[in-house]
Design brief:
It comes from Eulacestoma nigropectus (wattled ploughbill). The protein has about 230 residues and is mainly alpha-helical. The chain has 5 helices and 4 strands, in the order H-H-E-E-H-E-H-H-E. A two-stranded antiparallel ribbon has the order 1-2. The chain has a two-stranded antiparallel sheet with strand order 3-4. Helix 4 packs antiparallel against helix 5. The model has no long low-confidence stretch (mean pLDDT about 85).
């Protein structure tokens, strides 16, 4: 099929080429030239103030604003400063001389109050009183020590060993003695001649058990309070 050609093609080409030749030089071909009468004058760009009102017949115009009712004019009164100062001196309290301290024979002196010789600090209300931050710190230290002691006691209570009651102690003693009698009976029933290795080992085991039982029975009978670790 034939290629599509717009019917406005020639019109667009004409519009594109119409003003193209005017911009080949620096700017448009024809520019409006300013008239020589419109030249820049001196101080023409500075801001201008409003014109002042002319006085009529040499009299100034009164201001339009009316003073308010609360307005009080300032009345200037002449003061006699000489008499005022004289009265202030006559009625004033005489100044006390400043105390000085002289410590050399040449007469060198300096003020007595800032020298440290006047005991003014011991006359304060808070003299000898412990500061608040010290008491607070002591209370905090004491509270921390009490908390630490309480935690240690609690841990000791948790790790504390159990004590045997009298009934349990007597029952354990009876059981140990009964066990000792049974092992002793078995030991007494051994043959006199131990010629084999098995007999020797069996005899040594019985002797060790008897010694251990005797040691346990003596320890329980010696101590009334018996503690058992968990």
């Amino acid at each position: 099929p034939l290629r599509y050609i717009s019917k406005y093609r020639e019109f667009v080409k004409h519009e594109a080429m119409k003003n193209k030749s005017q911009w080949k030089t620096m700017g448009p071909a024809k520019v409006a030239v300013p008239s020589p009468n419109d030249f820049l004058q001196k101080h023409s760009k500075e801001p201008k103030l409003a014109p002042k009102k002319k006085e009529e017949d040499g009299k100034k115009l009164l201001p339009l604003s009316v003073p308010q009712r609360t307005y009080h004019p300032v009345i200037r009164i002449k003061k006699n400063f000489i008499n005022k100062n004289a009265v202030a001196v006559i009625r004033g309290v005489p100044k006390k001389p400043r105390p000085f301290c002289v410590d050399t024979r040449q007469g060198d002196k300096y003020p007595l109050e800032p020298s440290g010789l006047v005991p003014k600090y011991i006359k304060k209300k808070n003299y000898g009183v412990i500061p608040k931050y010290v008491t607070q710190r002591n209370e905090e230290i004491k509270r921390e020590e009490e908390e630490y002691e309480a935690s240690v006691l609690e841990q000791l209570k948790k790790k504390a060993m159990k004590t045997l009651s009298d009934e349990e102690r007597t029952n354990i003693l009876k059981a140990l003695k009964k066990n000792w009698e049974e092992i002793n009976r078995a030991y007494q029933g051994l043959p006199v001649l131990t010629d084999t290795r098995y007999k020797k080992i069996h005899k040594e085991e019985l002797e060790l058990k008897l010694k251990q039982l005797e040691h346990d029975i003596a320890a329980i009978e010696k101590h009334k309070n018996v503690y058992i670790a968990d």
